[in-house]
Write the structure tokens for this entry.
Amino acid sequence: MTENVILVDLNDNEIGIMPKMEAHLEGKLHRAFSIFIFNANGELLLQQRAFDKYHSGGKWTNTCCSHPRQGEETIDAAHRRLMEEMGMNAELRHVFSFTYRADLMDGISEYEFDHVFFGVSDELPVVNTNEVASYQYIGMETLLEELNTYPEKYTAWLKICFSRVMNNYNQIF
């Protein structure tokens, strides 16, 4: 089954659909979401992407990220993927959106209108090993140091949006 993404304009208005791989090869702007789950101690739940993912395999990133399906509300897609990847439910709150472009590898690029959701949960993940190699909880200051010291270990989108995540995190914890 071909997985499609929703193509959007710079205001997140839907303008079409395209197979996901084609959109990533052609650098087409499409709708995405990123989820950041924190525990009660304020630590962020990171996932290490499965090593055989078609891009960014083995890199550490936010709790979950993906793309909504055509006709699916972004918040519903976020809940669906959080369960599919991490085996978790959490109340999610939309915090901000941003657009970014990142060249990844082998002609693959991300050009996404990304909706960022925060949640708080002390539920331990039950990961889907097809999607996730490992997970860890990390303090935000420690993660900031890691991103600066070992940027190659982390996904492009996490590095791009992290300062905004930190700004909003400070309003919650």
User: Anything to note?
Assistant: Helices lie at 20-26, 74-86, 140-149, 156-172. Residues 156-172 form the longest helix (17 residues). DSSP finds four helices and nine strands in the chain. The first strand starts at residue 4 and ends at 8.
